[in-house]
Design a protein that fits this description.
Blueprint lengths: L2 E2 L12 E8 L24 H15 L4 E4 L1 H6 L1 H9 L3 E4 L12 H19 L5 E2 L12 H8 L4 E2 L20 E2 L7 E2 L4 E4 L2 E4 L4 H5 L2 H15 L4 E4 L16 H8 L5 H11 L1 E3 L1 H6 L3
Parallel strand pairs: 2-3, 2-11, 2-12, 3-4, 5-6, 6-8
Antiparallel strand pairs: 1-7, 9-10
Helix pairs in contact: 1-9, 4-5
């Protein structure tokens, strides 16, 4: 039975803490590039995730931001020092699966193996329990809700994989906008990316290409509206490749994929810096799991 999670309450006199999250993957691994980049070519491509993560971790340290990093097992295996830096800086280490395969493109057995192998790898390198999972491209929805049972069975406590919006690649618009238990409080906690409800639909307000496309002032207004009017923490996400305008540009990309990936990418790092100043931020587990 679906149940909404209790609303996280700020301490007296404090602002609402919002959840800052980063999906740790490289530019050639994004789902929009899948038709153009052969997965078999990944090991031969220039990886830039390590340098980009150093910039992000330094930015967060300057502003006292603690965040959750949903990390690919493929990245962790090749760059274990990235995982160790995340943990050493006081951030939460979480799972993005092993090889950025959409949950909706896997059988139940394949998915179970993917989430378990990624969790074990991350915990071995990071030395801390991995409680959270985010499906690549928010690929859990009405047709594969069994994935939530597999996550719970594998030892995860929460997921951030159902996006309550209409989108051509993902989305479950009828899902709740805020943290909920899809199968009751004994099951997994699902924590959606932030949306605002306007004009009869949920509009994305928590990162991704929309954050780069829209004016920063509008994104800031939407997140503040969720804090102020809904009394809920906002959940924001981005990727290391989004702060890297100098990344290699694969040939032959379709116009839609090229637009979505590169729009305003040169402004992203400054916008993350603005977010760090304009809101209070914390890790997912601290906000949603470690409540009194």
């Amino acid at each position: 039975m679906l149940e909404l999670a209790p609303r996280p309450a700020p301490a007296p006199g404090q602002r609402i803490r919002n959840a800052m999250t980063c999906d740790v993957e490289d530019y050639f691994q994004v789902s929009a590039f899948a038709p153009y980049i052969d997965r078999a070519s990944w090991p031969t491509r220039e990886c830039r995730v390590e340098a980009n993560m150093d910039r992000i971790l330094a930015l967060f340290e300057r502003h006292g931001v603690r965040a959750t990093f949903f990390t690919l097992g493929w990245i962790a295996e090749r760059y274990p020092q990235v995982v160790k830096r995340i943990v050493a800086a006081g951030h939460e280490l979480a799972s993005h699966g092993y090889g950025h395969l959409r949950a909706s493109d896997q059988t139940r057995a394949e998915f179970a193996n993917d989430i378990r192998s990624a969790k074990a790898l991350l915990e071995d390198i990071g030395g801390q329990a991995v409680l959270g999972y985010r499906a690549p491209s928010f690929s859990i929805g009405r047709d594969n809700l069994w994935a939530l049972d597999e996550l719970l069975e594998a030892g995860y406590r929460y997921s951030s994989s159902i996006y309550p919006v209409v989108h051509d690649h993902y989305g479950m618009p009828e899902a709740p906008r805020f943290a909920f238990y899809p199968n009751g409080t004994d099951g997994l906690l699902e924590i959606p990316i932030t949306t605002v409800h306007m004009m009869g639909r949920n509009l994305p307000a928590g990162g991704g290409g929309y954050f780069r496309l829209l004016p920063y002032a509008l994104s800031r207004w939407m997140m503040a509206k969720v804090n102020r009017e809904d009394g809920q923490p906002a959940l924001f996400y981005f990727h290391p490749w989004e702060v890297d305008p100098g990344q290699p540009r694969p040939e032959g990309l379709g116009a839609k994929a090229r637009f979505r990936h590169y729009i305003n990418i040169d402004r992203m790092e400054r916008r993350i810096e603005s977010l760090a100043r304009d809101f209070a931020w914390d890790r997912m587990d601290n906000i949603f799991l470690n409540r009194p």
